[in-house]
Amino acid sequence: MADTPLIQIIIGSTRPGRIGRTVAEWFTAHAEADERFDIELIDLGEVNLPMLDEPNHPRKRRYTQEHTKRWSETIDRGDAVVWVIPEYNYALNSATKNAIDYLFHEWAGKPLGVVSYGGVSGGLRAAQQLKQVGSSLWMKTMPDIVMIPNVHSLVDDDGALQPTEIMDTSAAALLDAIAERL
Amino acid sequence: MADTPLIQIIIGSTRPGRIGRTVAEWFTAHAEADERFDIELIDLGEVNLPMLDEPNHPRKRRYTQEHTKRWSETIDRGDAVVWVIPEYNYALNSATKNAIDYLFHEWAGKPLGVVSYGGVSGGLRAAQQLKQVGSSLWMKTMPDIVMIPNVHSLVDDDGALQPTEIMDTSAAALLDAIAERL
């Protein structure tokens, strides 16, 4: 790669009242301070994909909808992906899975980082499902993630996330792991 | 229950070109021939839920959107659920997970049947994920499902599903299992 590699950080929750954007902003600040990467923050709430409405398997890359073509171009320009995800009913949320299922080659071969958040579980079950989905897309999945338990207790009066020490350590470890596998 | 129990058969795929409706019509004919039950076929393509847009956890049942209130009323009237589901990227599809995540109490306590379809895998990995999600909703999950491998090879020239013997056997077994657990 001649240019600085681009990490795309994707906010997987689109729910009104979500905390995902706050979490993603914390991780994005970490990543932007790292001179090894260029960073793009992608908000699925703004991408605004409808429920999967393509008739062809994405392996064929024969997209019929303008929103799919735009989404394909967006992900095509990145070199690695970090998903910031919630856990709904002990599993992946639909907005994240929907955005993934639209594409195939655009994901393949890229490092897949995961930042999951939740209550005591820290979104771990959704994170495991996401790694499993990533493996079916030939992504470079990595054992360690950034796991944020009790996320609501970490939001300060200004609405920003006050990270624990282990969050900062694991964010740095995730960026190192991505750098090694690009 | 004074009345005949109502099984709701839900088509979990909304994708253009889906085979889900064909599969669901086969299972529905089976179920309708069974005098123990009333049957309602629900097509998520017609329900047409947007990506989850409720600010409150469904445990609170404080719905803000008309489509959520309608969906809640629909599922509330049923006594058991049979999901007819595809498998996308070795996992549950987003339309199914989205429709589930809108509600909580409406699912709880009901038998959860699964009819999954796919290639050689028969949609098994999506089926396992759905049972796991069902368990987080206090649904009565059941070990055996109706699994349909190589589903496209079973569609005849009229677009109907020509079942294998094991499909008919497992459909009957699923209806028996539901009857016992209502």
Please provide a written account of the structure:
Two copies of one chain form a homodimer. Chain A is of the alpha/beta class and 182 residues long. Chain A has one domain: Rossmann fold, CATH 3.40.50. Chain A is built from six helices and six strands; from the N terminus they run E-H-E-H-H-E-H-E-H-E-E-H. In chain A, strands 1, 2, 3, 4, 5 and 6 form a six-stranded parallel sheet that branches. Chain A is globular. The N and C termini of chain A lie close together (9 Å). The interface between A and B is medium-sized, with 29 and 29 residues.
User: Quick one: CATH superfamily of chain A?
Assistant: Flavodoxin domain
Category by helix and strand content of chain A = alpha/beta
Number of strands of chain A: 6
Oligomer: homodimer
The count of domains of chain A is 1
CATH class descriptor name of chain A = Alpha Beta
Give the helix level of chain A as a range of percent: 25-40%
What percentage of amino acids of chain A are in beta strands?
15-25%
Order of helices and strands of chain A: EHEHHEHEHEEH
Q: In the CATH hierarchy, what is the architecture of chain A at level 2?
A: 3-Layer(aba) Sandwich
Alpha carbon gap, first and last residue of chain A: 9 Å
Largest sheet of chain A: 6 strands, parallel
Rg over alpha carbons of chain A: 16 Å
User: How many H/I helices of chain A?
Assistant: 6
Q: Which word captures the global form of chain A? A: globular
- Rounded mean pLDDT of chain A is 97
Write down the CATH topology of chain A.
Answer: Rossmann fold
Largest interface, counted by CB within 8 Å of the partner chain's CB? A-B, 29 and 29 residues
